[in-house]
Structures are given as structure tokens and as C-alpha cells.
Amino acid sequence: MPIESYISLAIYFLAMLGIGLFAYRESTSDISGYILGGRAVSPQVTALSAGASDMSGWMLMGLPGAMYVTGFDAMYIAIGLLAGALANYILVAPKLRVYTEVADDSLTVPEFFAKRFGRANSPIRMVSAAIIVMFFTLYTSAGLVAGGKLFESAFGVQYHWGLIITLGVVVSYTLLGGFLAVSMTDFVQGCIMFVALILVPIVAYTEFDSASQMSAAASQSVPGLVASWEGMTLIGILSSLAWGLGYFGQPHIIVRFMAIRSVKAVSTARNIGMSWMLVTIIGALATGFVGVAYANQFGLQVDDPETIFILFSQLLFHPLISGFLMAAILAAIMSTISSQLLVSASSLTEDMYRVVSKKQVSEKKTVTIGRFGVGGVAVVALLLAMDSSNTILSLVSNAWAGFGAAFGPLVLFCLYKKNLTEKAALWGIISGAITVLFWIYAPVLNDGKTLSSVIYEIVPGFIVSTATLWVVSALDTKPAENVQKMYQQASQELAEQQS
Questions:
Q1: Cα three-residue angle 140-142-148, rounded to 5 degrees
Q2: pLDDT tens column, 200-224
Q3: Domains recognised in the chain with CATH numbers
Q4: Which is higher by pLDDT, 306 or 290?
Q5: Which residue ranges traverse the bilayer (predicted)?
Q6: Residue 276 has pLDDT above 50, yes or no
Q7: What confidence tens digit (pLDDT) does each residue in 449-463 have?
């Protein structure tokens, strides 16, 4: 690859590390600053940080690759995600911002689950922290796979070295600056992704004489929209749309709502975030569609559909711009990895170490332990990512379903059901997680396949978890009076802040 592209990448890496150093000086003196940025993050940073950490490498690689292979079937995933993200901003964001602060200033999702029931050391805290570490390790490995593929296909660097380079930069600024560094880098990375996903499909389209020529070339491999709709089963459409259910339970996304500076800022963040998401998803789908047409029209050899964005970047742009587009992919990958590493480290520190340890730990030492947690999760994720045959979309879909089913229903119940009990919450988490794992790994069908080949595992997981929460709460004893008072206090404060 030309030297100009390497210069663009070097500038990007230095900028990310610079932000990490700035955040290190501004917000890492105590654990609240390291984990939540002092609950003072602007709506602009919140919106793009949530979007960038949500979309990850699958936005520029996984989703275009899915569009390239399956055609308009991938569009239903996009529709489900848009609907889910909007519902998350409306139903979860404002309430979670207030309720986590009322619940004794909870800094992590597991801590909120525990303090929602008036017990800081509730078993629910350890169980949910363990699930976060388990699924985020898998999720982080998906991002590393994307980074390894990028360096291998774009720079000719061995896949394993690509993993190490990607992880090295992310870990550096996450260790240094904590939540503020992650949010600020996400904001910059979100801007880069936005520009790249507009630029690439438009420039690729200009290679054709007309839209009809491009559509004709694409139709050789991809059926039209009507044919795609007719060819999909109801279960297939439901599985794709169900991706949106996952938003309610993604710790690395909803933690942004906990950190935003005020409830009134949520509406601004929603407008920015949804506009960003709509444009970038359309750009990702367009990249895959134009990629099919380009390959058929001009004989482009595409060995791995998930690298179509990379191929366009190398073929159609000046090396300096090509380097910028490579940085866009790294931005998507790193924004998600950093968020996941930080949430995992927060759970290890706040929800496991502090609960188990009998000693009083200083704020400074807690931040140090959090940094060790970041490194530990990173190493395990690196080992899992060593298998380059893993597809980005499949790894992401498994982790997304795990969080969506284990935590999604519980988040909603915690915010909207006054009489939810601690026992119901615990069994809701466990039942959702077990259902997803069973759906993914148990070869119960006649041909040895798993149930996830029939319907996306988040659907049964979400249903089982919701039913468990409802039934156990109905059968269990009434929550303590102080727990109900806390719920009422949070409702009152939310109404006051929204007025």
C-alpha cells in the first residue's frame, strides 16, 4: 500500500492516543470519572459515542458483506436496529439517567440492578457482572477479527499481527483515559464513519453509466426487493427484525444514558444519534449492493464479501483518502472494543472485586484495578480471535442476543414495574442467558444443527426472560417499602427534570 495511506493511519493513531492522554489528565482521579466521566457528557458526544460503540466493525464490514451475500434480506436487520435504537432512546434513556443516580449513584449496570432492590451486594450483581464479562469477551473478539481482516487484506500484514496492532492502540487509550477517552474517541470515530459511508457508495456508483446499468449488474446475483420479500419466511423476517430487541440490554450502549449530563439533553442526543444511524446504515447497505454490481460488471474478484468496503477504498481513491477510509474501519472497530473493555473492567472492579473484597480500597487503587481488568479481558479476547475463519456478523449476533435476552427485559422491568422483586430479576437474567446459549450450541435438530438455524436466539431468550420476570414477581412476596419509595422518588425526579 502507498506511503500516503500509512501516513493517514499514523495521524489517526496519534490522534486517538492524544485524546487518551487528555482524558487521563481530566477525569481519571476517581472511579466515577474513570467509569462514567462524572455524569457530565454532552448530548453530541453521547449520541455519536452510543452510535459508534454500537455499530462496530460490522457496520463497515459485516453489514455490507451480508448485503453482498444475501441481498435485500439484510435490510430487515437494519430496520429492526433503527426501530430498536429509537425505542431505547424513548423508553430507557431518560428513566435510566435518573434512576441510576437515585439508586445510590450506581456506576455500572449490575450495580443498578442490585441497588434497585436496596441491596448493594445482592447476588444479582455478581451474576450480571459474570454475564457481562463472558459475552463482552466474545463481542470484543468479533472486533479484533475485523481488525485482523483489515490489516491482512489492506496492508498485507499477517492476520495475527493485525489483531495485536488493533488491540494495542485501543487498550492504550482506554487504559489511560477511561470513559471520557472512550466517549471522545467514539465521537471522532463516529464522524469519520459518517463521512466514509457516504463517500464510498457514491464514488463507486459513479463508475456506472446509469442507475439502471448498476441495478441490472446487481440483479445477476441479488434478487430484487419484491422477490426478496416473497422469498423470505415469516420466521426469517422476525429473526432479522428482532435485532432491535437487543438494544435494551446492551451495557456499552445504555451506560451512555447513565453518563449524559441531564435528562433534557436526551432528546438532543436522540435526534443526533438517530440521524447519524439512519445515514450510516443506508450507506453500509448501499456499499454492499453497489459492490455486487461492480463485481459483476467489472469482474472484480471478491474472496471475502466482508472486505468489499476495503476493496473499494483501495481501487477508487487516492492513497491519502484510502488511508482515511481504512481509518474509518479502524474507528468502527476500536470504538466498540474500547467501550466493551471499559464496561467489562468496570464490572470486574466495581461488581466483583469490591463485592468480594473485605478491605476498603482507595479510589486511586480502584482505578488501577480497573486498568488491569481492561488488560485481562483484552488478552482473552485476543486468544478467541486467533481463529480467522470466524465471521464478524456471527460473533456479534451471538453476543448481541446474549445481552439482549439476559438484560433487556430486566432493564425495562426495573424502570417500569414497581413491584418487580429481586428473586424475579435474578431468575430473569439466568433464564434469558441460558436460553440463548442453548439455542446457539445445543445440536438438538435431526441433522445436528442448533435451534439458531431456525430462529434468531434473541427471540426465545427475550420471551423466556420476560415471562420469568412476570411470573416470579407475581408469585414472590411484595418488595420492601424502601424499595418502592426509591422507585417513587425516581419517578418524581424524572417528571421534575422533564418539565
A1: 105
A2: 999 999 999 998 898 888 887 766 5
A3: 3-395 (1.20.1730.10)
A4: 290
A5: 6-24, 74-92, 126-147, 159-180, 187-206, 226-248, 269-295, 315-345, 366-386, 392-412, 424-442, 454-475
A6: yes
A7: 888 888 889 999 999
DSSP string for residues in 414-480: HHH-TT--HHHHHHHHHHHHHHHHHHHH---STTS--GGGTS-THHHHHHHHHHHHHHHHHHSPPPP
- Cα separation values, 354 from 251, 347, 363, 371, Å: 19, 10, 11, 15
Closest CA to 241 of 456, 49, 45, 65: 456
Alpha-carbon distance of 135 to 291, in angstroms, equals 32
Cα–Cα distance for residue pair 367/244, rounded to 1 Å: 34
The structure's pTM equals 0.85
Joined grid coordinates for residue 475: 408469585
Q: Which long-range contacts (CB under 8 A, 24 or more apart) does 307-315 make?
A: 307/61, 307/65, 307/149, 307/153, 308/64, 308/65, 308/68, 309/60, 309/61, 309/64, 309/200, 310/61, 310/150, 310/153, 310/154, 311/153, 312/200, 312/203, 312/204, 312/287, 313/154, 313/200, 314/1, 314/154
Say if CB 305 and CB 77 are below 8 A apart: no
Q: Within 13 Å and on the Cβ side, how many CA atoms surround 321?
A: 12
Grid coordinates of 328: 474509518
3-state secondary structure of 260: strand
Q: Which three cell numbers stand for residue 209?
A: 453509466
| pLDDT band at 436; cut points 50, 70, 90 | very high
